[in-house]
Fold each of these.
Amino acid sequence: MQTAKKLSFTDVWINGFFILVSLSMVLPFLLVIAISVTQEQSLIADGYRLLPKHWSTDAYHYIFKSPTILIHAYGVTILTTIAGTLGSLALTSMTAYVVSRKDYRYVKGTTFYVFFTMLFSGGLVPSYILITQYLHLKDTIWALILPGMLSPFYVLIMKGFISEIPKELIESSKVDGASEWRIFFQMILPLAKPALATLGLFISFNYWNSWFPALLYINSENLVPIQLLLTRMMNTINFLTTSSQFMSGITIDTSKFPNLSARMALTVLAAGPMMFIFPFFQKYFVKGLTVGSLKG
């Protein structure tokens, strides 16, 4: 009969430390959810509590006054996130595969070019001129997808992962008559699943949380993403809660208006969907972070 292994003091200390770290990350989000369903007067009187004294869904009622607009904004964000993530992964993996090949004649120059663009960018004004005047993408869905599709930082991360793949596999495939496209799609990409999942998660977070490109390039209400819509709602809430103090003739009872709870409800709506997606990629995410740390 196998006896249970006793935990040493070091194991207890390490496990306890990471439990505290995990709680420090989970508890704030639970507090945000609790505040979003707390009555505004209770927040003012009792402060923030994990278990609200007085429950209320007024904040969500205020946000969902126009559900069609909110659902449409979610649709725009989901479309840009899926299309942008898939396109970015394709370009990133292809570029990384090229610069990871030692037999590529211009590998040093291409790698330097990728690294240089990570340190120095063209700036906001040239980017705006390129998108609006030369590419004519203003008020199109592509203005939300193309600007963040290729990141040199992600290319270098992917390059480091692909470089760990034995080159003998590529050489043997060439001997068998496989083309470069077949080697890339049937050998490199399946082996790079952990890195693709990790970078895909980062890229999807960037697209999901992006609102500044929409502020610059989008005027049509049909192309407003969820983050920009929630930002506008937040500005409206700030205006309504402060206007009664500085403008005559406006009487708003700010104690009953869902100010603090609405802010937290907006946070839940913005971050909630991605919180549910993350567990499905956790296995690949952890493997992608640790791969390449050990050799042999």
Amino acid sequence: MSRGGARFFAYGAPFVALVAVGASGLARVVGGRLEVRDALGEVDARAPARTQRVRRAMARFDAEAERRRLIDAREDREAYEMRAVWRPEGGQGH
């Protein structure tokens, strides 16, 4: 066996094995965390109302969805118009 081949088995093979085992372990840990997060996000109809409120409160806030919900809540969508909000004289952005 050549000197380079012996060097690969001495240093390279353990490094490659460590990378493979580390990647496998990391995938398992991250996958478990994602499963737990997904399970917490699901709403169980049998869960107490307090638990459901906590889960909904933990959900991420989507500003665009909230804006659409507010617009849709109005009687007539065409009645909605964007208007400038009055600001005091010293306010910025005027």
Amino acid sequence: MRLPKLFQRLALAAGLAGLPLIAAHAQEPQISIMTGSATGTYIQFGRDMQRLMGQCGHEMDVVESAGSLENFLGVRQRPRTQFGIVQNDVLEYMQTFAAQDPDIARTIKGVRIAFPLYEEEVHILAKNDLQDFRDLAGKRVAIGTENSGTFLTASLMLSLAGLEPAEKLAIAPRDALQQLLTGRIDAFFYVAGAPASLYTGSGVDGSKFHLLPITDDTLRSVYTPSTLAAGTYQFQSDPVDLVAVKAILMTYDYDATRNAYHKQSCDAVSDLSSLISGNLESLKQYGHPKWNDVDLGAIPSGWDVGACVTRGTSSDYQMNCTAPTTTDSDANESYRRSICAVMGC
């Protein structure tokens, strides 16, 4: 199997960057999670985790990004970035190519699983005259920006199905939606946990556009078959058969004995791990609806859970919490009370 040009660029970037920049941070590092676009589910999950960390007195930045590929590299080499949300098929293909290319092997070194999250549906919004996935052949199709999981998933799915669109446009879903509505493209891919806010108030006319069913046997054997319930979106009155990929929260394998930065980052990873594992029911009640689909035991094969995560989920772990310094809104205060009822404050 030939190494895709995208992975070649990523391997080069990782090789030039080396290990995460860890030596220059004498003070407590800023905690960050890399997520996705402003309209995606990743960023909403990131904000839920940000609120959770806030109840422990930690300030955590939620960083917008192009998506999974950028997030993976962010965890690997971006300073003060302890977390990133990545699609499982990105992990699988990184692992596949690591066996063939030493630069890719260096790229994935030290990156670890924090938690499995939820299934992300592959949305393909298309003109109504396209009725099946195979109808994308010869059409103008947007497949997401190059550092996104959408880009990788769309590229893989088209390759697996043996389809060649007339044009494959590497543009973000938000821009692709406008191009579809104005007739400049025929369809666009968007990998996001439903309901995706991109489609809320988007002006999609159900008599002109629909979500393309994905019933191809090959694709449904590689990806997880899924059905989007009727009425998930205003323009979608009937159930739609799709496929999905799992979102995974990734981290780095910090060594708490190495230096102050590693210790403080490991503490942050352990604290968030403890908060998520101990307060999943609160997240399901107050967070994004996709928290209801989270199974913390569904760890993808071939990847190890980080040692700092394991430490944080142990029954005798003591969190490094301080009193929050800001005044809570009513919603946040209610959220805090629910968390405190479980973990104590």
